[in-house]
Every structure is written in structure tokens, then in C-alpha cells.
């Protein structure tokens, strides 16, 4: 099996590549990643000399590159995206380009090259947000995105399904909740807070700190993607989550406790515009159909994650200082 993974120099995609190359000794992976500010090919140091791994720096919106790579593989696993909600509030154009146009470019190539298997990585944010007493999102919850990020992801989900209905493209979609774990870019809540604390800084908690996210370890998410890729029903969506709802305040106190620090390190700051109040996922379908279950409890996963950021300070310090861009720049764009 030859896979084209997009966005494999980012957080979830890199972890997926490491897992798949280890788990399937005959699989080959091509990673197509533009190395935007969120990409860091140093993350893939551990597979760089693996003959079954190929890195191509390129834009998923570029039909020439995409066409050539899609022609070489059996399946596409599509992670590449602009992924940070705060950035989409400041400037949403790149979100529309990458998340909508980029997904369209990949779908077109998959169709032209004999309807290649296509798995699309999406988010629970397409379903909007929940009040505290509402039931978790499930596969039939209507899309009601509320940020430019989630609107662009919802658009991409619709495009993916339209290629199934119109062209018979063998697609699946996973809509997952908030991921955490090793190699997450230090702009997102958990790595930002852990690395700020390690630098002696405060942590900026938005609004009242009572917004709720449903946390899942990145390895549990990627195990779900593996199951769906191999055994998922074509044309189906799978909601993925670990039923681990926490307020941002709870997350912050847990990190402070693990790092032996006090609440004086919290700084309440202005709220995010249009801040979604609560996300929660019902993953009953993937649990019963594909026998997937999350393996890592939040307590175990967050402890491991904090320890990982402590032990791998050079990785995030290179990002925070901007040094990582120099090694990214050694990769020229093209096939
Ligand atoms: P990330 O921001 O860490 O990584 C995104 C990667 O995509 C980066 O390596 C970046 O360089 C690359 N990229 C961006 N634009 C590109 C383009 N035009 N062409 C090629 N590559 C490009 O993101 P992540 O957190 O790993 O998320 C991966 C996917 O999972 C996204 O589709 C996201 O919507 C989805 N998702 C994320 C979470 C989460 O909690 N992080 C949860 C559910 C779903
Ligand atoms: O639900 C899945 C989504 O989770 C993914 O689709 C997105 O790609 C991913 O970025 C994530 O979105 P969130 O907006 O939930 O993640 P973020 O880490 O940015 O924020 C988590 C919560 O923490 C949110 O309620 C905002 C809050 N927050 C975040 C930051 C960065 C703060 O209070 N302070 C901060 O500095």
C-alpha cells in the first residue's frame, strides 16, 4: 500500500506517519506538506532515512504537484489544513484557500486517477457548539459552523461527500474532537500553556475559562483513522472522541499541578470572538462498527505530554525562536 499523506509535517499528520511506518512494514508514505508556519519537517527526523518515507514540499492547491503524487499512490489521507481558530479570526483567506480549494484540488486528482481511496480528516467544530445540557455531537448532527476555520472545514466535508455521491469516489470522513500529545505546535492551549510555564511566563486563559473541550490523545485519534482507512464504510462519516470533557480552567489547573506551580501563573485575558462554548462527541458508531476504543485516559495522556515537552525542550524552543524555519527552508518546493 502506498499512501499520500497531506500535512504530515504538522501535529497529527506527523504522528500518523510515524505510527503507520512502524505498524505496516510494507507501506510506503509520501508526505506532501507546504511547511507553512505550522509545519516542521524536523518532527519527522525519526523517519527521514527510512526508504519507505518521501517528503515533498508543496501546496495542496497546486494541481501539477498534486496530480503527479496522486498518480503514484493507492490512497490519500488528507490532514493538511490551516488549523488554528484564532488565526482564522484575524485573516481567513488562507483557510478558504487551503481547506476548501486545497481539498478540492486533491479530490479532483483522486477522481482523475481512477477514483483513489480518500480519507478526509475533519473536526467536531463543523457541528457548531453545545450548551451545557445538550447531547454530544454525532454523525447526523447538522453542520452549523461558527468560525471561519470551522466554516472552511465544513465546506471541505461537503465537497468530499459530493465527490462520493456524484463521482463514486471512495471517501470516508472522521470528525474528531480536540487532540493533544507530542509535537503539537505551541499555539494551541496545552502546548502553549506548558511551554509558557517552562519559560517562566503566565498562561492566557480566555474569558471565564469555563469553555469546554472534549480531549483525545493524538494516538487514539490516529488509531481511529487507521481503522477507518482500512475498514470504514465508504461514503460514511465517523465521529471520534474519548468522552473526556474538561473546562479550560480544569486543564490549566491540571497542568499547574503536574508542574508544581500555583494559580498566580494564570492571567485571565479578553475572550476569543464568537468563542464556541462547548464541544462533545458521541463516538458510539466507530466503537460499535469498527471496534475502536480510546486507550489513553486523560490523566495518563496529559502526564506523558507534559513530561514530553519538558524532555524535548529543543523541539519547541526552535519553534518559539523561529529557528525551525531555517531547516524548513532547506526543502525546495516541487516534486
Ligand atoms: P497543524 O496545523 O499542526 O498541521 C497542519 C499541516 O498542514 C502543517 O504541517 C502545514 O504546513 C500543512 N499545510 C498547511 N497548508 C498547506 C497547504 N496549502 N499545502 C500543504 N500543506 C499545508 O494541524 P493539526 O492539528 O495536525 O491538524 C491536522 C488536521 O486535523 C486538520 O485538518 C485539522 O482540521 C484536523 N483536526 C485537528 C484537531 C486538533 O485538535 N488539532 C482536531 C480535529 C481535527
Ligand atoms: O475541536 C477540534 C479543534 O480543536 C480542531 O479542529 C482545531 O484544529 C484545534 O485547533 C482545536 O480548536 P480549539 O479552538 O478548541 O483549540 P485551542 O487549543 O486553540 O483552544 C482550546 C480552548 O482553549 C478554547 O476554548 C480556547 C482556549 N484558549 C486557547 C488558547 C490558545 C485559551 O483560553 N487561551 C489560549 O491562549
Walk me through this protein's architecture.
- The chain has 335 residues and is an alpha/beta fold.
- The protein has a domain at 2-185 and 216-245 and 280-297: NAD(P)-binding Rossmann-like Domain (Rossmann fold, 3-Layer(aba) Sandwich), CATH 3.40.50.
- The chain has helices at residues 11-23, 63-71, 85-90, 93-112, 148-167, 189-198, 218-231, 248-258, 284-289, 298-311, 313-321, 324-328; strands at 2-6, 28-33, 53-57, 75-78, 117-123, 171-176, 178-180, 203-206, 212-217, 236-240, 245-247, 266-269.
- Strands 3-2-1-4-5-6-10 form a 7-stranded parallel sheet, sandwiched between helices. Strands 7-9-11 form a 3-stranded mixed sheet.
- Helix 6 packs parallel to helix 8.
- The mean pLDDT is 98.
- The site of nicotinamide-adenine-dinucleotide has 30 residues, from helix 1, helix 4, strand 5 and strand 7.
Task: Tell me briefly what this model is.
Helix content is 41%, strand content 17%. It is an alpha/beta fold and 335 residues long.
The biggest beta sheet is recorded as: 7 strands, parallel
Percentage of residues assigned to helices: 40-55%
Stretches where pLDDT is under 50 for at least 5 consecutive residues are none
Ligands present: nicotinamide-adenine-dinucleotide, 2'deoxy-thymidine-5'-diphospho-alpha-D-glucose
- The third-level CATH topology of the domain at 2-185 and 216-245 and 280-297 is Rossmann fold
Output the number of helix runs: 12
Shape: globular
Determine the CATH superfamily of the domain at 2-185 and 216-245 and 280-297: NAD(P)-binding Rossmann-like Domain
Amino acid at each position: 500500500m502506498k499512501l499520500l499523506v497531506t500535512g504530515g509535517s504538522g501535529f497529527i499528520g506527523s504522528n500518523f506517519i510515524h505510527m503507520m511506518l512502524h505498524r505496516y512494514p510494507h507501506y510506503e508514505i509520501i508526505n506532501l506538506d507546504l511547511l507553512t508556519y505550522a509545519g516542521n519537517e524536523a518532527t519527522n527526523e525519526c523517519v527521514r532515512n527510512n526508504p519507505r518515507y518521501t517528503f515533498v514540499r508543496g501546496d495542496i492547491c497546486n494541481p501539477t504537484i498534486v496530480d503527479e503524487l496522486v498518480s503514484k499512490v493507492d490512497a490519500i489521507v488528507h490532514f493538511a489544513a490551516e488549523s488554528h481558530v484564532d488565526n482564522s479570526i484575524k485573516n481567513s483567506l488562507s483557510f478558504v484557500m487551503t481547506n476548501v480549494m486545497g481539498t478540492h484540488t486533491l479530490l479532483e486528482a483522486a477522481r482523475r486517477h481512477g477514483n483513489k481511496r480518500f480519507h478526509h480528516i475533519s473536526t467536531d467544530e463543523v457541528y457548531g457548539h453545545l450548551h451545557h445540557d445538550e447531547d454530544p455531537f454525532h454523525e447526523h448532527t447538522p453542520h452549523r459552523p461558527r468560525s471561519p476555520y470551522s466554516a472552511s472545514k465544513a465546506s471541505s466535508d461537503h465537497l468530499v461527500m459530493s465527490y462520493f455521491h456524484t463521482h463514486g469516489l471512495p471517501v470516508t470522513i472522521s470528525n474528531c474532537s480536540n487532540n493533544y500529545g507530542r509535537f503539537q505546535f505551541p499555539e494551541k492551549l496545552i502546548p502553549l500553556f506548558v511551554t509558557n510555564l517552562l519559560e517562566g511566563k503566565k498562561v492566557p486563559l480566555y474569558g471565564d475559562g469555563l469553555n469546554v473541550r472534549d480531549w483525545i490523545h493524538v494516538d487514539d485519534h490516529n488509531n481511529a483513522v487507521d481503522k477507518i482507512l482500512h475498514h470504514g464504510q465508504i461514503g460514511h462519516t465517523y465521529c471520534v472522541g474519548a468522552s473526556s470533557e474538561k473546562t479550560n480552567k480544569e486543564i490549566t489547573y491540571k497542568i499547574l499541578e503536574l508542574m508544581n506551580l500555583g494559580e498566580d501563573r494564570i492571567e485571565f485575558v479578553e475572550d476569543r470572538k464568537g468563542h464556541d462554548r462547548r464541544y462533545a462527541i458521541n463516538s458510539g458508531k466507530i466503537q460499535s462498527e469498527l471496534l475502536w476504543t480510546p486507550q489513553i485516559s486523560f490523566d495518563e495522556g496529559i502526564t506523558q505530554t507534559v513530561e514530553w515537552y519538558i524532555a524535548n525542550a529543543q523541539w519547541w524552543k526552535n519553534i518559539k525562536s523561529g529557528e525551525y524555519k531555517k531547516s524548513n527552508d532547506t526543502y525546495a518546493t516541487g516534486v
